[in-house]
Amino acid sequence: MSSTHAFASPGQSNIYLNTVQNRVSHDGFQDYFGPIYNNQGSKKLYGLNIGGTYVSQSNVYLNLDYEWTTRGSTTQELFQWTAGIIYSLNDETSLSMGAGLRRSENKRRSSCRKDKPIEQCQYEYQTTKGTGPVIETGVIWSVANNLSFKPNYAYSRLFDKRFHTFGISGEYQLFSKLAVTIDYDHTASSNLSQNIINWGFTYYL
């Protein structure tokens, strides 16, 4: 999931849109799909990430985040709802901490099946769905007036597995209300090694 929302400051609500490149390691999709995923190779998925954050003057934030990636026979959707607080440590550094729910919906399409050569392919779809808690924390470091970085960590539990996500995000302010962002996240669990690169834009309301 995107870490863009954590750049929000008190009173600075935002919306964001990112492109996503999602690379999953060999056997990694077993942790999302279980036995219905029989391809042992690694896979790259591509898609979009969209979300928005409301931040109050008392430093409380509420974030809604949606990510959709697909490639061939495999599609993954991730939804996340988090609420938390931002602590200002000094003029350049803030600490964010939050918790909420994460939902994963995964769809796998079977190989083409037809009884006669002239028939159209008949595909079968299998899905897995899971919802679990997520906690997140990060440090927001303003290097300059228009440049910020944020190392971050999130823990979630889905499909009876523990997922650990470590990330680094960067934001460059183009105009007073528009910034370009790039995120790199690495998620690991029992079988999974997942690398996600997001880049896009954040608009401050």
Question: Can you offer a commentary on this structure?
Answer:
The structure is a single chain. The chain is mainly beta and 205 residues long. It has one helix at residues 30-33, and strands spanning 14-24, 43-55, 60-71, 74-88, 93-109, 125-144, 147-158, 161-173, 178-188, 193-204. It has one domain (18-115, 135-204): Porin (Beta Barrel). 2% of the residues lie in helices and 66% in strands. Strands 1-2-3-4-5-6-7-8-9-10 form a 10-stranded antiparallel beta barrel. The radius of gyration is 19 Å and the shape is elongated.
Question: What's the short version?
Answer:
The protein has 205 residues and is mainly β.
Annotation keywords:
205 residues; OMP/PagP_B-barrel; 10-stranded antiparallel barrel; Porin; Outer membrane protein beta-barrel domain-containing protein
Please list the strands of the largest sheet in the order they lie side by side: 1-2-3-4-5-6-7-8-9-10
Shape descriptor: elongated
CATH T-level fold name: Porin
Structural class estimated from helices and strands: mainly beta
Oligomer state equals single chain
Total domain modules: 1
Ends distance: 21 Å
The biggest beta sheet reads:
10 strands, antiparallel, barrel
- Please report the total strand number as a whole number: 10
Strand content: over 45%
CATH hierarchy: architecture: Beta Barrel
CATH class identity: Mainly Beta
The Cα radius of gyration reads 19 Å
Protein name: Outer membrane protein beta-barrel domain-containing protein
InterPro entries: OMP/PagP_B-barrel
